[in-house]
Every structure is written in structure tokens, then in C-alpha cells.
Design a protein that fits this description.
Strand order of the largest sheet: 1-2-5-4-3
Shape: elongated
Radius of gyration: 27 Å
Oligomer: single chain
CATH class of the largest domain: Alpha Beta
CATH architecture of the largest domain: 2-Layer Sandwich
């Protein structure tokens, strides 16, 4: 068998697994309908997503929508939708545009999502109201063999770290992978086209007009030409997918589908890597708020940028950074050209002819922070002053609570935080993220880590 046939044999559910999945899905829909009747909730359960379309992999997630008439208020839709979600085991509240429930039903992970039942997708009232139309479109247009091509593409996207429209990944959704196969027919053809892409890229299945889009990848939604089905795909995820497609075309390998996990380096190995780089490593960590990833991740990226901007203003050169959301902590790793600056800095004042030049001169002549000056460079007064925080660690430790980190992360920082340096990052329990940060390997190129 070919590589892709081998992969498909691993990821495609057997006939028995398909039957069991549909049995569970049908049981769930009946349970939701019963619960709605018992509680007098006017909802219609629907099966959507990859299970409904027949493009799912082994151990799938089930997407169950509960549809309400357009006359239902938004408050009732959310309240009733969450109440129906209680039929699941281990129910947890999640948020997209509106709240929904994630849990487990007969061993499979399930999302119970409220939506409005509409006659046409353009009449949508919430972001998920198009989903039943997506299901119908794929069901009507996709052949049986193409479903296997979707499975290969999904596994490839997972393996290369580009699958998922959620905030953590900002990659390709399951629906977008289905549209790509509808557009190009086969997995290989999708990669062949992607290897030639030059952003911005605009794709479509249906003729017609649509508004202009600003995203790097545009795939006009065939059920609503006012929507970009690829809007979640970031420049990073798109670039990674294009590179993976090129690499696969040159040398197809199992690691594109099933990469080696990144194993944390030992302290000895981390010391060696850090010594070879000769840079300064910092880690900023605090407790993660008990909120869904899609709420926390945008704030985490905001915090990362706020920290970078602060360090730049403080004259530290940041080479790169990486945010991570761990089980109970959030972490931003930073690599700086140097973690220490001279104890003296130059402070540039106004031109000598401005009225406040005298005040500047008087202020600094009396300041205990003054080292030299005021003197003139060009047409401006300048003074050399003592640097308040000569190390990046000191600067961050003092100023972090005052940075704009996002509502929930900012609150977490006020409860307590750590600014770690070098080996302390690994000793604090972050060897895994630090290993990924330092090795910086493409997913399909990861090999077993040296100890």
C-alpha cells in the first residue's frame, strides 16, 4: 500500500465504529428531544459537523445543535440551550459568540450548541446559524471517495499543527478542509495547489459576487457569499501549511500526519542549548483564569505584545517570544539579546531655545539620579542618569502589574506572578514549553530529543 493508504487505514473508522458512532449520535438526539419535551423547551435537536457529513476520524467529537425558532429571544435561546446541555456527563460551559455546553455522552466528547432555525443562511442571527446549511451543502456535493480525502487532509493539518479555527491555533476548520477537497477533489491536489499559493489567496466554489475580504486566505462560503470560511486562518498558520505542502510534495513522510512528540530536554541539555545561544531567557508566569481557551488566548497574545513593547521601550532587544496556556498557568517565554543594560542611560531633553529647557536643566542638576550633564548634543539638552532597573528581570518584576495584559490576565497578575530567568524556568516546571521554545522545530521535522 502507499503511504496515504496506510494512513487512511489508521484514521478511518471501521464499519463497526461508524455504526457505533451513529448509534451514540442518534441516542443523544433522542435524549435531547425527550429533555426538551419534559421541560417544555421548544427546541429541535440536529446532528451537524463531521459525524453528520461522514468525514470524521476515529474517536470523533459529536456536534449536536438545538435549533429554536427566530422568534425566540437571545436570552431564552442561551438559557434553554445550556439547560439541555445538562444531559451530558461532565458538562462544562464554553463560549463562542454565545455560551454552549461541552461534555461526554456514552464515551464520546460532545458539544451541545443552541442556534436559530432559519430558511436561509443570510438571515443568520448568531454565528453558528449557518452550520446546518454547511452540513447540507457538503452532504449534497461531496462524493464518498472525497470523504476519505478529507480525512487525509484533516490528519495532515493536525500533524502539521494547522488544524482548528480556535484562538489557540488560528488554523483550518473542518469545514474549510471539506471545501478545499470539494474545490480540488483529492488530498494530493489540495497540497499541490497550496504549494503554489502566494498570499493573498482567494478561492470560491460558487459563482457570484461577494464583499472584499482582508484576510490572507479567502474561501468564499458557498452558502453565504458575504462570509470568508477561512477567516480564522492566521498568516502564521497559512505560511506553515504552505511550507508543509511544499515539503510533502518533495518528500512524503509519515511524520506529516503523526509527528514525534516534543520530549522535554533534561536540565543538562537545556543548559547546553542556552549556553550555545548566549542570549537571555525570561519567563513570565501567573495563574490562568478558569475560562475557555478562546476567551483566554486573545488576552494571552495581548499580554505577550504588552510585555514585548514594554521591554522595547526599556531598551531591551527582544529576539522572540512565545505564549503558552498550560493546565493552571499562563506563560510567556522571551529570548533577549541581553538581559542586562549599562547602569547609566542617556535621557534626551528639549532644544535649548524652548521655554521649558531651563526647567529641564534645573530639574536634572538637582536630581540624585544624575550622573553627568546636562550637556548639549546637536541642539538638545541631554543628561546621563542612573538606570532604575538595569536588568530585564527587575524591570518586568516591577512594572508587570501596570501593563495592559487583558482583563482576566491582568487580574491574575495582581493575585501573584513570577518572573523567571534562565534555568529557573525549567526548575519551575516549564521544561516542556522551554524545550519547544529553544528547539523551534517544524512539527514534521521533530525527532527524538537528545537527553
Amino acid at each position: 500500500m502507499s503511504l496515504e493508504q496506510d494512513i487512511l487505514a489508521e484514521i478511518k473508522p471501521t464499519r463497526e465504529e461508524v455504526e457505533e458512532t451513529f448509534r451514540i449520535a442518534e441516542s443523544l438526539l433522542r435524549r435531547l428531544a425527550e429533555e426538551a419535551r419534559e421541560q417544555g423547551i421548544p427546541a429541535k435537536p440536529l446532528l451537524v459537523g463531521s459525524v453528520a457529513k461522514g468525514t470524521f476520524l476515529k474517536q470523533p467529537e459529536i456536534d449536536a445543535f438545538v435549533a429554536f425558532s427566530p422568534e425566540t429571544s437571545r436570552e431564552d435561546l442561551e438559557r434553554w440551550g445550556l439547560r439541555l446541555g445538562r444531559v451530558l456527563d461532565e458538562p462544562t460551559l464554553r463560549y463562542a459568540e454565545h455560551p454552549y455546553t461541552r461534555g461526554v455522552y456514552q464515551g464520546l466528547e460532545v458539544d451541545v450548541v443552541p442556534c436559530y432555525e432559519l430558511d436561509q443562511p443570510s438571515a443568520r442571527m448568531t454565528a453558528v446559524d449557518r452550520t446546518p446549511f454547511h452540513f447540507e451543502y457538503v452532504r449534497e456535493h461531496m462524493s464518498g471517495p472525497q470523504k476519505d480525502q478529507v480525512r487525509l487532509l484533516k490528519r495532515f493539518l493536525k500533524g502539521t499543527g494547522t488544524y482548528g479555527a480556535e484562538a489557540r491555533v488560528q488554523g483550518f476548520s473542518g469545514y474549510l478542509s471539506e471545501l478545499l477537497v470539494l474545490r480540488y477533489v483529492t488530498f494530493r491536489a489540495v497540497l499541490g495547489e497550496a504549494a503554489q499559493w502566494r498570499p493573498p489567496i482567494r478561492l470560491a466554489l460558487e459563482s457570484g459576487t461577494s464583499r472584499p475580504f482582508d484576510e490572507p486566505l479567502v474561501f468564499v462560503d458557498p452558502v453565504d457569499d458575504d462570509r470568508n470560511a477561512a477567516s480564522a486562518v492566521s498568516s502564521h498558520a497559512l505560511a506553515l501549511f504552505i511550507l508543509a505542502a511544499k515539503a510533502y510534495e518533495e518528500s512524503a513522510d509519515r511524520h506529516f500526519f503523526f509527528p514525534e512528540p516534543v520530549r522535554p530536554l533534561s536540565l543538562t541539555a537545556l543548559r547546553k542549548v542556552a549556553r550555545e545561544r548566549g542570549t537571555a531567557l525570561l519567563g513570565v508566569a501567573a495563574s490562568a483564569p478558569d475560562l475557555p481557551e478562546d476567551v483566554v488566548y486573545p488576552q494571552l497574545r495581548k499580554a505577550e505584545q504588552a510585555i514585548r513593547s514594554f521591554l522595547k521601550e526599556a531598551e531591551f532587544k527582544v529576539l522572540r517570544s512565545q505564549p503558552s496556556l498550560l493546565e493552571k498557568q499562563w506563560l510567556v517565554l522571551l529570548e533577549l539579546e541581553s538581559g542586562e543594560l549599562p547602569p547609566v542611560r542617556k535621557h534626551v531633553g528639549p532644544p535649548t531655545w524652548l521655554t521649558h529647557a531651563e526647567a529641564f536643566q534645573a530639574k536634572w542638576e538637582e536630581s540624585p539620579q544624575r550622573v553627568a550633564g546636562p550637556y548639549i548634543e546637536g541642539d538638545r539638552l541631554v543628561v546621563d542618569v542612573k538606570r532604575e532597573e538595569p536588568t530585564a528581570r527587575q524591570a518586568l518584576a516591577k512594572r508587570l502589574p501596570g501593563l495592559s495584559l487583558g482583563k482576566n490576565l491582568g487580574h491574575a497578575v495582581k493575585e501573584g506572578y513570577e518572573v523567571l530567568e534562565g534555568e529557573e524556568i525549567a526548575r519551575a516546571g516549564y521544561r516542556g514549553p522551554l524545550t519547544e521554545f529553544l528547539r523551534r522545530e517544524l512539527p514534521w521535522q521533530v525527532r527524538k530529543s537528545p537527553r
